[in-house]
What we know:
mainly alpha
Amino acid sequence: MDAITALALSVDNPVLKAVGLLIDNAYFYAALIVALVLLGENRNDRRLRILATLVVVIVLGAAIKETLAHPRPCAGVSGCPADYSFPSLHASAAFALMIAFLNRKAYPLYLLFALFISFTRLNTGVHVFADIAGGLAVALVGYYAVDLVWRSGGRDVHGA
């Protein structure tokens, strides 16, 4: 186990663990991400672009996850998610959201959100640091792909 994952796992806080388990719920997490998009951006064209990026990132991440079939570090433990580990889809979505707000005043909040989500994935033992780093890479590729398509479609990308 890498040092960053071991450090995150060593933090034993019941409130933090409870929040991590709440975030693990896909429906709750999806609602949280959509709420952050709606709260952070008031222009519908940008909202659409961010949501498109999130869809691409999740589909790309899920395809990689199924292709590589890397077992979770908690495999075999009760409560461990049944799917594969690499890359973290939670981190991918959080990092994609962070990237979407890169040139905005709210960016530090989205950065902290992405780091917090990543930490909870490590702290609950469902991912290792490489899964989080893979999530960042998926977010970057997904954002760039949507940006290319958006630009080629003649859409306004100012302020992105």
